[in-house]
From TrEMBL:
Main location, first listed in the record: cytoplasm
SUPFAM superfamilies, A to Z: Carbohydrate phosphatase (SSF56655)
Cofactor-binding details, from the entry: Binds 2 magnesium ions per subunit.
This protein's encoding gene: fbp
Pfam families recorded: FBPase (PF00316), FBPase_C (PF18913)
Keywords: Carbohydrate metabolism, Cytoplasm, Hydrolase, Magnesium, Metal-binding
Protein origin, superkingdom: Bacteria
Name this polypeptide is given: Fructose-1,6-bisphosphatase class 1
Residue ranges of domain Fructose-1-6-bisphosphatase class 1 C-terminal in the record: 188-321
Lineage summary: Bacteria, Pseudomonadati, Pseudomonadota, Gammaproteobacteria, Chromatiales
UniProt xrefs under CDD domains: FBPase
Length: 324
């Protein structure tokens, strides 16, 4: 079992990047410990505040955000951070090589039911000489990511990580406190019979997704000629983890439930890092009309439709989408 840092060194990651990832991991270990204590650590429940997205912040959203922000900025190698829980970006070292954008706690609604939650992060290059307080330095497409990952706080605490040389998984060994490499190369099966989507939004989807899911539901008797199974964890980090482990397709498509918010998932700290992990594991990721990692962001909290997972199934779904 190899430890985090030697595994990264073998992949050619430089010392500063390894230190930065180790700092993110240190914050996540602390979050993992507190999550593991449940009710005993007084981290469950909501605060009285809303974040910039208009969502009530859970105590754990705030605690996780503070831990990550402090440890990441302390490295000195980061020019600025951007977080789901911060309205604007937070400047760091003007000479820093990296930018980090993160969702401190994904699946917040699962905190109070002891179900899957996680932290998602993405590391981008910092444009040298730029103003660390200028949020536009973050507006880089997903293809610019240097590294991306998530830490899943489940029965075991796991990390999926890519630096662009495949996707690896590490498991937190709670007996000595370090992450050990447990999957050298994640490989998503190309074919699947499992889909993940919030079916309660069905009537609000656009025709392409309506038709695609309707055909999956027809099963053996329908055009796909096989039965499909459905899973929904209500935490992208849990659904994507399952897909990295055994394949499947995950979709959070555009819907008209709230016309002011047609898309749910955030490009910079949900869709892009997950797309990088999925593509590096042999899967595909799209909005239905374009590759997610090619999108030029216009806002740090921008939302996008997401369809990702097993390559052939994503391709089947794309056949229902006509170019706009
Ligand atoms: P967050 O907790 O960071 O706000 O993200 C939750 C997201 C995502 O993780 C998940 O896939 C989706 O919201 C769940 O949406 P539903 O409430 O529609 O199930
Ligand atoms: Mn999230
Ligand atoms: Mn979140």
């Amino acid at each position: 079992m190899r430890r985090l840092a030697p595994a990264l060194r073998l992949d050619g990651a430089d010392a500063e990047l390894i230190d930065l990832i180790k700092s993110i991991v240190a914050a996540c270990k602390e979050i993992s410990f507190r999550v593991g204590q449940g009710e005993l650590s007084d981290v469950l429940g909501s605060t009285l505040n809303e974040n910039v997205q208009g969502e009530t912040q859970k105590k754990l959203d705030v605690i996780s955000n503070e831990l990550l922000k402090d440890l990441i900025l302390e490295t000195g190698s980061v020019m600025a951070i951007s977080s789901e829980e911060e309205e604007s970006t937070v400047p760091g070292n003007p000479q820093g090589k990296y930018l980090v954008t993160f969702d401190p706690l994904d699946g917040s609604s699962n905190t109070d039911i002891n179900s899957l939650i996680g932290t998602i992060f993405s590391i981008l290059p910092a444009p040298q000489g730029a103003d660390p307080a200028d949020p536009s330095i973050f507006l880089q497409p997903g293809t610019a990511q240097i590294a991306a990952g998530y830490v899943l706080y489940g029965p075991a605490t796991l990390m999926a990580l890519t630096t662009g040389k495949g996707t690896k998984m590490y498991t937190l060994d709670k007996t000595y406190g370090g992450f050990l490499l447990t999957t050298e190369q994640v490989s998503i099966p190309g074919v699947t019979s499992e889909f993940a989507i919030n079916m309660s939004n069905q009537r609000y989807w656009q025709p392409a997704m309506q038709n695609y899911i309707a055909d999956l539901l027809k099963g053996k008797e329908g055009p796909r000629g096989k039965n499909f199974n459905m899973r929904w964890i209500a935490a992208m980090v849990g659904d994507v983890h399952r897909i990295l482990c055994r394949g499947g397709i995950f979709a959070y498509p555009r819907d008209l439930k709230d016309p002011k918010k047609p898309d749910k998932l955030r490009l910079m700290y949900e869709a892009n890092p997950m797309s990088f992990l999925v593509e590096q594991a042999g899967g595909a990721s799209t909005t239905g009309y374009e590759r997610i990692m090619k999108i030029q962001p216009v806002d740090i909290h921008q939302r996008v439709p997401v369809i990702l997972g097993s390559k052939h199934e994503v391709e089947s779904c794309l056949q229902y989408h006509q170019p706009m």
